Amino acid sequence: MKMKNLYLALAMAVAFASGAFTMAQVRDWHDVEKVHNHVLEAMHELEHLQRANGYGMGGHGERADQLLHQAEHELDMAVQFAQRH
Q1: Which residues contact 23 (CB under 8 A, 6 or more apart)?
Q2: Using an 8 Å Cβ cutoff, are 65 and 46 in contact?
Q3: What is the DSSP letter of 24?
Q4: 16 pLDDT exceeds 80?
């Protein structure tokens, strides 16, 4: 069940990051920053989950980690962009 929740959170974060970049202007960068913080929390939770499962999650944990890092980077860039504009 935890993996299902993790994948759902990951999908939501990636979808939000994609949507943030398609908008012409971010009106409230604090909302983007909140999602960025949630992704950081998910990264820490995933690390804990991977350790607890001996990193043997059929490669899915590693792929989720890669996607979370990508989402975190995009959200960080979105916050920085919004703060400048």
Answers
A1: none
A2: yes
A3: S
A4: no
Residue with tokens 């949507």: 19
Which tokens is 43 given?
A: 């990264």
Contact by Cβ (8 Å): 43, 14? no
Domain of 71 in residue numbering reads as 2-84
| Token pair 């993996």 in the structure block, residue | 3
- Residue 25, classified by CB atoms within 10 Å of its CB into exposed (0-12), middle (13-18) or buried (19+), is exposed
Average pLDDT over every residue of 60-82: 87
Specify the number of domains making up the chain. 1
Q: Which two tokens stand for residue 49?
A: 């989950």
